[in-house]
Design brief:
The chain has 159 residues and is α+β, with helices and mostly antiparallel strands. It has a single domain, classed as START domain (Alpha-D-Glucose-1,6-Bisphosphate, Chain A, domain 4, 2-Layer Sandwich). A seven-stranded antiparallel beta sheet has the order 1-7-6-5-4-3-2, covered by helices on one side. It is globular, with a radius of gyration of 16 Å. The termini are far apart.
Length: 159
């Protein structure tokens, strides 16, 4: 069975602390997720910051408005550098998402994401990836880029 990777980078016009505080807070996930995804956190009593071993449950509508459960575990956290979330229950056979941040030499922050995933249903999932899944992930990350730019402004090189 095939698996795929989606890589994304974005320069953010903010400090490391601002970016880390934003991306490491579960409550901010909805802000960077397209509204059509119907993203709702269903976990109760989540703390302000993610931690290793944290389980977060959601409802999402990735296709045709059909609600599905998604449960992720935060498997790794290196404060102010990266965290990893892995799907435990959800629409993929496998989902591993690395979120990295690092300072840019010219100011601001570089955000890097590496999503490694495997669609369900074997070869049918591979076809679905070509037709729909890969494009949907591109849309989601494009939305996120715009949401981050709206929050922090468009990154401009400082010389």
């Amino acid at each position: 069975m095939a698996f795929y990777q989606k890589k994304s980078t974005q320069k953010v016009n903010a400090t490391m602390e601002e970016v880390w505080d934003f991306i490491s807070s579960p409550k901010n996930l909805k802000e960077i997720t397209p509204p059509y995804m119907g993203f709702d956190i269903t976990s109760e009593g989540l703390p302000e910051k993610m931690y290793q071993g944290m389980i977060i449950s959601y409802k999402v509508s990735p296709v045709a408005g059909i609600k599905t459960d998604w449960v992720t575990e935060i498997t790794h956290v290196d404060d102010m550098r990266y965290f990893v979330d892995e799907q435990r229950i959800g629409p993929y056979s496998m989902w591993h998402h690395q979120h990295w941040i690092e300072p840019c030499e010219t100011g601001g922050v570089l955000m890097r994401d590496i999503v490694t995933y495997q669609p369900p249903f074997g070869f049918l999932g591979a076809i679905a990836n070509k037709i729909m899944i890969r494009k949907k992930l591109e849309e989601i990350f494009a939305y996120r880029t715009k949401a981050i730019e709206k929050k922090y402004g468009v990154y401009e090189e400082r010389v």
